[in-house]
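SAMPLE LOG
Freezer: B-3
Tube label: C17
Construct: single chain, 320 aa
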Amino acid sequence: MARVIAARRFDGLGLRHAPGWRILPLIVAAMTFLAALAIAGAQGAAELGRHWQQGAAATLTVQVPRPGTAPSPPVAAGETRRDRVAALLRGTPGIAAVRPLGDAELSDLLRPWLGSSAEQLALPLPAVIAVTVSGATGTVGGVDLAALAARLEATAPGTLVESHGIWVRRLALLADSLRLCALAALGLVAAVAGAVIVVATRAALASRRGVVETLHGLGATDFYVADRFARHACRAAALGGVAGLVLAVPVVVALTALAAPFVSPAPVEPGLPGWAELLATLPRLPPLLFWALPALPLSAAAIGYIAAQGAVRAWLRRLP
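STRUCTURE (predicted):
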């Protein structure tokens, strides 16, 4: 066993001391860290986009002009146009919740545009009713918007029904754009890591040119020589990948803790210390991250082996 271990540790080409190898794990660690952030960003954008799209698609906004006037024809004493519209909405199949907004809420909505004078606005404001449609997927497929608008117009002329389809499409486009950017960054990181490994391998080849030429002249195959360099590059890349992953995991968990309230309605138990709160968010990590992040060191090792093999074989083909 000692002989086997010694044979595996034997470095006949002196690659451990070749220039470029020592800095390679640090560079690969940085690339792995960036790759982990890119994967987390892509998955986070997908989850946030899905959650926001479901929320926007599951709501309707109904505006009732002259909400305090009596409906025509009147049915009950004291009934207003807003009351009749709200009652009609509550009796419509496919609508899960109907909530008329109060004056304070309307003032809060107008304050960004009108400032502090929103409460003293003399113009009559329409009543705004927030409607939530049923369905786990957050679609309005269970509600016929055209028929609903016609019924509301007949009940309270001038009532407007606004769906959020345009915002859903914009949210979907934004989420897809962020995910594509993150995936492009991931591909760029992999390409840069491969290029760095190729440069380090060529530097090691240049420093061991005489030894490699002698071995090649004595009959050593291209695979034998390339495999020695590729294994060394593979080990260095794997070491850097593990180091980068160790640095990236706390950052990914912290970002997940910040984004969790926007995705999952389940709150974290209050009063927990900082480290315990971070650990409590681990179950909220997307399942993709549980296998994608541990695969980064393996991917780095594979990139290192393939890049070094290709660089050495291309160099050997130019030998006489």
